[in-house]
Design brief:
Blueprint (H helix, E strand, L loop, with lengths): L31 H14 E2 L8 H5 L5 E5 L5 H9 L4 E5 L3 H14 L4 E4 L3 H7 L6 E7 L17 H8 L2 E11 L2 H13 L3 E3 L17 H8 L5 E7 L5
Parallel strand pairs: 1-4, 2-3, 2-5, 3-4, 5-6
Antiparallel strand pairs: 6-8, 7-8
Length: 242
């Protein structure tokens, strides 16, 4: 069935409209290649937020461990992970349409088929569309750091968000966070360590050396050359019920 990217007027009523959002929606210009990719590949790989939670196997046409990346940017890490791990399914959620177009362009050029994409707000997609206890892992790589102290309340990684994620990650599944802002890494560590639903895969309070499963981006390579740090946190979902 052909589908069009969701617009603000098409979306169902916001079930969490009172929350402080972690993003500002910027209307970036689509390149010709991104626009062409949206027109060509969205009907095959695009997904829409719905009022009923569907089966992930129906989206992919198979049963396989499924991983979600929230805020994939231009999609470089997501498409690389999907290409390197064809035995897994991947879902990407990104609010910025040029990023979605860039990911779809990359998917088409590389012939990757194990990715499904939402051009939407991850909090609302989780609340309305993703089945609970269905994900083998969730990735949040380099979310907006909202570096000014007065904006820290906008940061995505908060106790309430981890409680929401705990409903969707299967016991034994992973929550992998990464940031290049040290004070945000400290906040992430505090929030994740205090969560009753997640356990650090390292010693208490310790960060994780970058796993091979997280591709090294050009931005990150440039940061390393300038002496900038990157902090990875890998936590495991335990059996505590939400």
């Amino acid at each position: 069935m052909s589908r069009e990217p969701v617009t603000e007027t098409d979306k169902p009523a916001n079930p969490v409209s009172h929350r402080i959002k972690s993003f500002v929606l910027r209307q970036g210009r689509l390149s010709k290649g991104q626009k062409r990719a949206l027109e060509t590949y969205w009907p095959q790989f695009g997904c829409e937020r719905g009022s009923e939670k569907g089966s992930l196997s129906e989206w992919f046409g198979r049963e396989a461990p499924t991983f979600l990346e929230i805020g994939f940017g231009m999609g470089h890490s997501l498409v690389t992970m999907a290409q390197d791990r064809p035995e897994h399914n991947f879902i990407g959620i990104e609010v910025h349409r040029p990023g979605v177009g860039a990911l779809l362009k990359d998917i088409g050029e590389r012939g990757v088929e194990n990715v499904r994409v939402f051009n939407d707000d991850a909090v609302e997609v989780l609340a309305s569309t993703i089945p609970e206890n269905s994900l083998a892992g969730v990735y949040v790589f380099f979310p907006d750091p909202w570096h000014k102290k007065r904006h820290h309340k906008r940061r995505l990684i908060q106790p309430g968000f981890l409680q929401q994620l705990a409903r969707f990650i299967q016991p034994g599944g992973t929550l992998h966070l990464a940031t290049d802002w040290e004070d945000y890494a400290e906040q992430m560590m505090s929030v994740a360590s205090d969560s009753p639903w997640f356990d650090n895969t390292q010693e208490a309070g310790q960060y994780t050396p970058r796993p091979d499963t997280r591709p090294l981006t050009k931005f990150e390579k440039r940061g390393h050359s300038l002496g900038h740090g990157v902090w990875d946190l890998v936590f495991q979902r335990n059996n505590t019920s939400v």
